[in-house]
Amino acid sequence: MVEVFATKEAVLDAAAERFVLSSSESIRLSGRFAVALSGGSTPQGLYHRLAAEPFRTRVEWPRVHAFWGDERCVPPDDPASNYRMAWQALLEHVPIPSEHIHRIRGEAKPVPAAEEYERTLRQFFGAPEGPPAPRHGARFDLVLLGLGPDGHTASLFPGDPAVLEVERWVLAVEAPILPPRRVTLTPVVLRAARQVMFLVFGKEKAPALRHALAADIPAGRDPARAVLPSSGSVRWLVDRAAAASLPGGDPGSA
Length: 254
Ligand code: 6PG
Known about the structure:
It is a single chain. By secondary structure, the chain is α/β, with parallel strands linked by helices. It is 28% helix and 17% strand. Strands 1-9-8-5-2-3 form a 6-stranded parallel β-sheet, covered by helices on one side.
């Protein structure tokens, strides 16, 4: 489902509300909330909202487990680190236990870091092999994702073989943009999520959004289409500028 909002601020307010509802529903169903956070600049405003009232106290932080959809291979205190951004904007301000923060080790060599993160995820979700099972507690409750102007999501880039991965949950990849060395979750684990929520704003992302949502264009190796949930739900929260190229133009603002 696609929801179009007049402004970026309205997208972020709606995303914070969705995050709160998803967390309480997941905690009711499985006793915990496993969320994959996204990087880049888009989710920063969401993280700031969640760290402050009225949202902060509506989330049961001691039951939240934070993971990342991707990480740049840089130390955790580097300005490009996705962990650092989420820590500074959100995690250091809320009572989430430190052992519930499952970061990707960007400072390690990419291949071992990816293998280590896959072990962490498989152990957490109780899946020694195969894809995550479609039941509560065995898959991500919520995956947050952004969309690059080139159509990448997490660190899955158009045309990269990682987009077509069918076994591994985490891979080291070379990105065509800076920083190039990255570790990313693959569609195997992302598309198994109970809920996927994309946040997209800005007119430079309009063509990528149109492509990601176009049923008339073959999916090919389109990253956003590769991660669409197999048995969960997907929600696109976008602003009017990003929605400008959708068929019929702006489908109406929420
Ligand atoms: C990353 C991301 C990436 C991001 C998009 C959008 O680490 O780069 O996780 O997939 O979500 O590139 O980035 P912006 O929000 O900066 O436009």
